[in-house]
Amino acid sequence: MKKLFYISLFFLLSIFLVACGNTTDKQTKETTTEPTNNAQPAQDESKNEKVNFVYTAEHGGITKVDAATNKTIKSIDIEGSVHNVQISPDGRILGATVVPEIGEHGGHDSGHEEKTNGFALFYDVETDQLINKVEVGSHPAHIVFTENMKYALVTNNEDNNVSVIDLTTYKMIQNISTGNGPHGFRIAADSKTAYIANMGEDTVSVIDLESMKESKKIVVGNTPVTTSVTPDGKNLVVTLNAENSLAIINLENDNVEKVQVGEGPAQVYIQSDGKYAFVANQGTPENPSDSVSKIDLETRKIVTTIKVGKGAHGIVTSDDNQFVYVTNMYENTVSVIDNNENKVIATIEVGTEPNGITLK
Is residue 46 a part of any domain in this protein? Predict the structure, then answer.
């Protein structure tokens, strides 16, 4: 139990570290302002011209990177620690979870006895303007949209539940109970089921989004951090931080297989064709890891291990599966991996302790 508590505590406290964000000469800053009521994302007037951007969640804001040039072009300043970011399936909205500074919004001066609610922020991708700010639970972790654009879900790590936000009204309509310490998760492509990793125990909560209830728990292993679902919905993968492994679950019978990866795995991402899963191996502040494990999901074997920066945490692939992007928490950078060559081709300086990452 002590080991579970220590590892969970590390993840909870890591986003509270205060430092100055790194910027580049070409970077511009914007400050989050209060949203306009009932604001809607702007219509994209240049649909024939596809522009890709990478967004990273950091202490004090979000960094926006041009994926064509691998250059930082903007930072959005936000009070508190931005834990996670996610682009909506239609590419029009950027969601972010924010943990307020200690003492902010009625918080306390010291200790952790009094909980402080966090927020889900929603930005217009075309204008980078804040659409809405929704109060959720204590220590919000990850945010994920349903594929049908009906809901956004936010895990509240200290409340042991997940908030459901209606994307038409931007109102929180329900909190659904989970296991202890809900953290990273993904939603099946049919928008019916969410799979939430419970860091405080050895389970994944299976959330039925039609009944709005936890339908069951799957025992997966020690300190599950986050999940990912194969495109066909048949398999679930879960990083097990305390076991240095990736659990692969057959969702028809809940059978669990494990593949050994690097030290302290954090996030996992499955490329769009379902062939490979990529695991960011973070390690600890005292003994940071600096690698990404590439796993063939058919053979259940590691294809290669790619060296990146220290504290590899967030991970995402491009839509065409040509590139993999990884946040390096202890170096304040993002590594860009060529997925064919299996090597880093660029390193981008971003803000302080980059955590989650998403791609438009």
Answer: no
